[in-house]
Each structure stands twice: as C-alpha cells, then as structure tokens.
Amino acid sequence: MKNAVSIVPALASATLTACFATGCATPARSDHMAVLATPQQRIVVTPLRNNVAVLEVSGGRSSNRLWTSKVGNAEFAQALSLSLQDAGLLAANPAAARYTLSARMERLEQPLTGMNLTVTATVSYSLVERATGNELLHRTHTVPYTAPFGDTFGTIDRMRVANEGAVKANISALVDDLVALPVKAGK
Fold first, then answer.
1. Which residue has the higher pLDDT, 77 or 27?
2. Are 185 and 47 contacting, i.e. CB atoms less than 8 angstroms apart?
C-alpha cells in the first residue's frame, strides 16, 4: 500500500516533465480545420447561397492539457462557419437564414501513440429548412486523416494535427454534399 501511495507523486512528476519536454496538449484550432472552397463551389447556383446558419454543434470535447488534444464544440462550430462562409453558403444574419445546420461529433477515434497518427472523425450533419421544419439532408461522414511522423516532432502536436486534418476532411465532405444538394428555390 505504501509503495502505491509513493508512486503517485513520481507519476505526477514524470507527467509534468514530459509535458514540459514535449509540449502540453493544445486544442484543435478552428482556422486549421476550416475548408477553403474550390472555385466551382464558390459559384454554384443554389438556394443555400448565403442562407445557412450553424444552429447547433455538439459532441465535441475540450482538450486536457496534460493528456491529449481534442476538438471542442466552439472550435468545431467556428471551423464550420468559416468553411460555409468561404463557400458562400453562410448567412450574414443567422436569424434570417432560410436553412439551419446542426452537427454532432459522434466519435473522434485517436490512437494512444505512434509514429504516424491516424485520427478518424465521425460527424452527423442535419440541414433543415427553417420555415417548414423539413430535413433536407441527414448525413454521417466518417473520415480519417494521418499526420505523418515528419509533420511535427512531438506526438502531442502530431495528434492535434491529425485531429484538425480529420475534422477538416469531414467538413470538406459536408461542403461537397451541400453544394450538390438539389434544393428547390423557396419563395
């Protein structure tokens, strides 16, 4: 029992030393997860143009600086908004938007460690016409991204890069879906 109690301070000290030596876990950055639209996506004619508001984002988790990087709801919502804005889909006035988008981070699968880190993001999206309540799109995307060993030195940074890459690729699939969605123009 005494050995178990004395190991706790040693573990805490080792964790803090590792944190300072390799860097503490930082949350994913929204600007690193945002998607730049293609020129075709920016000019496609759709009733969604400047008419989508991000209503709700859920399922994200805040990063624990002593453990591992995660993707929080606020960062994910900001990345979605930046991506929709770049594609010309985000409404300038969310209250006046004809369509609302909700996103739920179902799963963020992360390895414990490794050289090349592959993170897989599973996100469910729902696009609803505000006036009627009709769901126009309900899609779940499961997308992996691998951050190779050469991208960053530390495993903690590589995990953040892999998180950002997986979410960015997931948002990219959503933007593809939205610009291709056959939506009838409303009155």
1. 77
2. yes
How many residues are recorded in the chain? 187
Q: Are 51 and 97 in contact (CB under 8 A)?
A: yes
- Residue with the two structure tokens 């005494």: 2
Instruction: Give residue for tokens 């000019």.
Output: 43
- Domain range annotation of the chain: 2-180
The helix (run of H) or strand (run of E) holding residue 156 is: helix 155-180
Task: Tell me the per-residue pLDDT of 54-101, one tens digit each, with 9 for 90 and over.
Answer: 999 987 766 555 445 668 889 999 999 999 999 999 999 999 999 999
Rounded Cα distance, 77 and 67, in Å: 23
Class of domain 2-180: alpha beta
| Token pair 């805040």: residue | 62
* Most confident segment among 28-37, 51-60, 110-119: 51-60
